[in-house]
Amino acid sequence: MLHSNITTRFSGHETFPLRHGWLYKGLNHLNKGSDLKPSSTDSVINAVIELGIGKNMVSSLRYWLEILGLVDFDKDSLQISDLAKNLFLTENAWDPYLEKIGSVWLLHWMLCKNTLQVTSIRWFFNNSSIQTFSKDMLVDLIMDDVQSVTPSQIPSNKTLEKDIDCFLNSYVNKISQSKSVSEDSFSSPFVELGLVHASKNKGAFSTFEKRPSLPIQIFAYATIDFWKRNYPDSKTITYDNLLMQEGSPGKVFRLSIDGLNEMLDNLSAYTDKKIAWSDTMGLRQIKCEEITNLVQDTFLNDFYS
Predict the structure, then answer these.
(1) Which residues neighbour 237 within 8 Å (Cβ) at sequence distance 6 or greater?
(2) How do the domains of the chain map onto residue ranges?
(3) Total-model pTM
(4) Could you give the CA distance from residue 303 to residue 272 in angstroms, rounded to a whole number?
(5) 3-state class of 280 per DSSP?
(6) What is 21-97's CATH number, 1.10.10, 1.20.120, 1.10.3680, 2.50.20?
(7) What gap in Å lies between CA 305 and CA 293, rounded to an integer?
């Protein structure tokens, strides 16, 4: 169920999914003092020339940089996040061309962890447990949820349909009539995660399962991030919190029970039991005595070292 204090954001991407190379190009463009202001003709023309993308794509690029939490655009200036600098901009940038699948999992986490500003992508990965669906079904479900919580922010059907198109184009392989995967299928790095698949009846499906391509360091980063934002004063959280709560690794990564069990076993071994989980008389919980002192960025440093 959506929070009562949510805001909605079902536009801004111009229906373009995130493309390979966009984040690297966009961040370097901003880092050298240029801008991506859709309201400024000079800014747009400069971006079109330098980045080799269309006018509408300039707005879309700005959207993705912002929605991923990589850049904070305000009225007078912009702030590039430390994560963006480390991943894309520094002399020894971790993975500027997103060659590691762990980097895509990390970006997926950054995209979905905000549960207070709702997009179709965030709704699906945080508020939905459906596994087989159509575009029309998503329109109805999201519209019903928004109407029940914040009726003043109900989008038009057309706006919501375009946002869902962007979601599906970002995560689903496009299967042509010849049943081959088209070249456009791989325009978005999120397709590589295999979280959503096209079905034969023009719908899609997304199951809860194990995620063998999800690195333990990225799972650890997400778990500590979730823990500190939601339970900062607690040394324990419940298993169900981690599996089913909005904005949790279990929801965002679409983990099955077996999948979460496996990740927690690996996390316990990886952290030398600093983060451990137990299942005693039906009470399953995750415990970390050092939670206030753990710095989640150390897990990223380890992954990229």
Answers:
(1) 227, 230, 231, 285, 286
(2) 21-97, 117-205, 216-304
(3) 0.94
(4) 16
(5) strand
(6) 1.10.10
(7) 21
pLDDT at 144: 95
Distances (CA, A) of 45 to 34, 63, 71: 11, 17, 21
| CB crowding 24-40: b at 16 or more within 10 Å, else e | bbbbebbeeeebbbbee
The structure tokens listed for 287 are 């415990």
Task: Give the pLDDT confidence score for residue 216 in this predicted structure.
Answer: 98
- Domains 21-97 and 216-304 agree in fold: yes
CA-closest candidate to residue 27, choices 94, 76, 118: 94
The class that CATH gives domain 216-304 is: mainly alpha
Mean pLDDT, contiguous 10-residue spans, the chain (305 residues)? 85 95 96 89 91 93 97 86 97 97 98 96 97 96 93 93 97 62 63 94 94 98 97 96 97 98 97 93 91 93 96
HSE-up of residue 89 (Cα within 13 Å, Cβ side)? 17
Residue/partner pairs of 131-135 with CB below 8 Å, 24 or more apart: 131/205, 131/206, 131/207, 131/208, 132/199, 132/203, 132/204, 132/205, 133/203, 133/204, 133/205, 133/206, 134/201, 134/202, 134/203, 134/204, 135/161, 135/164, 135/165, 135/168, 135/203
The pair of structure tokens assigned to 127 is 């508020």
